[in-house]
Amino acid sequence: MMLRRAWMLRVGGVGLWGCVAALGRSAWAEEQRFPDVVGVRIRAKGPSTFDLDVTVSSPYDTPQRYADAFRATSEDGAVEYGVRPLAHDHAGEQPFTRDLRGLQIPLGVRKIRVQARDLQHGWGGGTRVVALPGR
Fold it and tell me: 78: number of CA atoms within 13 Å, CB side?
């Protein structure tokens, strides 16, 4: 209990967590500029063909602004292997998972980067670098 009090910031007699709760989730979500890729499941369908299931978090989603795509690129982002457009917001489904099927990736590539895009701000946010199975 003593340790807990030592690090807990107090604001006018209310703990920091009370202030955060009072702001609500939407206040924090509105400040987020980009969606984050929070999970990637990848399956080999052939020597150069892969299917991806990508989980994206964009808690700020509204019909006016939302995560509108994700893509798979080379690890350094220089080569784009595929893009999955997202046609609408996912405000009631956070985080959400969508697939990208039949991705063609050259044999010498061992890892890819997966990134999401915001309708207004473009590509950004948290990405995931994943190893290709069997490589």
Answer: 2
